[in-house]
Amino acid sequence: MDINTIGVIGAGVMGVGVAQNAAQTGKKVVLIDLDTVTLEKAVDKIRQDLRFQSMFKPASANVLESTAVLNNITPSTDYSLLSSADYIIENVTEKWDLKKEVYQKIENLAKDNCIFAANTSAIPITRIASLTKRPDKVIGIHFMNPVPLKPAVEVIMGYHTTETTLNITKNLLSSMGKESIVVNDSPGFVSNRVLMLTINEAIYLVHENVAKPEDVDRIFKTCFGHQMGPLETADLIGLDTILYSIDVLYESFNDSKYRPCPLLKKMVDAGLYGMKNGKGFYTYDDF
């Protein structure tokens, strides 16, 4: 199956990264969001990222490459444009009601052979597939941030996902410069069942005044060689996304170990989301 056009739903941090990565590797991208301001910011962010990347390439190739990438992306609020997509990657917020609305909408718009990929942090792929009439063509792709720079992704097989869907997905990801690490379906999959617990426990350490955020992170970086500490990672992902993901794990497993830290809830209520809006456990002056 040839994939020429990719629909990307959601122009947040992850959606922007997916759209840029796909467009840089020659795919036509339809980038959908309900908010025109968000779409304008998304295009500006891609333009900035391309400009930064161009600093490491010959000047003669910079403008042409950046222009070609941007020309490959069609930002729009019109879901009907997804009817041209061969493959759709959904990146909306980790809230079930929002996911449900999106899949019910695209089910009637997409080509019969179009594959739906959920870029989700924790919601089971089998549950998402139940919203469609094509569960065999639904798969999970958990991209890591920043998408264009990460060499691998976590690919999740739902109960009904076929080997054909998997192979098409792996070929697509390979063309985007990604290695596929395939796992079976479970809330949080592999990465976030471990990562969210780690981040949540790190937040408890701050909440209980055991350590300051910078000291928690410094221990992980200096003692274990991690490139980022758990609280820096939380700010990068977005504290709102962290909370939504932990809530999904708590609801799915009914296990108290996934109980979100009260400090996390308080910070999200206060609008302290991390890098995406300038302040989380750290302050970002360049926001």
**Stretches with pLDDT under 50, minimum 5 residues:** 59-64
Helix fraction by DSSP (H/I, runs of at least 4): 40-55%
Please identify the structural class as seen in this structure. alpha/beta
Strand content: 5-15%
The radius of gyration computed from the alpha-carbon positions, rounded to a whole number of angstroms, is 19 Å
Distance between the termini: 41 Å
- Report the average pLDDT across residues: 94
Q: Which class of the largest domain in CATH terms?
A: Alpha Beta
Shape: globular
Assigned CATH superfamily of the largest domain:
NAD(P)-binding Rossmann-like Domain
Task: Quickly count the helices.
Answer: 11
* Tally of DSSP β-strands: 8
Can you tell me about this structure?
The chain is of the alpha/beta class. The protein has 2 domains: 180 residues, NAD(P)-binding Rossmann-like Domain (Rossmann fold, 3-Layer(aba) Sandwich), CATH 3.40.50; 79 residues, N-(1-d-carboxylethyl)-l-norvaline Dehydrogenase, domain 2 (Orthogonal Bundle), CATH 1.10.1040.50. The chain is built from 11 helices and 8 strands. The protein has an 8-stranded mixed sheet with strand order 3-2-1-4-5-6-7-8. It is globular. About 2% of the residues have low confidence.
Short description:
With 287 residues, this protein is an alpha/beta fold. The chain is 47% helix and 14% strand.
Write the layout of secondary structure elements.
Layout: E1 5-9, H1 13-24, E2 28-32, H2 36-54, H3 59-71, E3 73-76, E4 87-90, H4 96-107, E5 115-118, H5 125-129, E6 138-142, E7 152-157, H6 163-175, E8 179-184, H7 191-207, H8 213-224, H9 230-237, H10 239-253, H11 262-269
Parallel strand pairs: 1-2, 1-4, 2-3, 4-5, 5-6, 7-8
Antiparallel strand pairs: 6-7
Helix pairs in contact: 1-2, 2-3, 7-9, 7-10
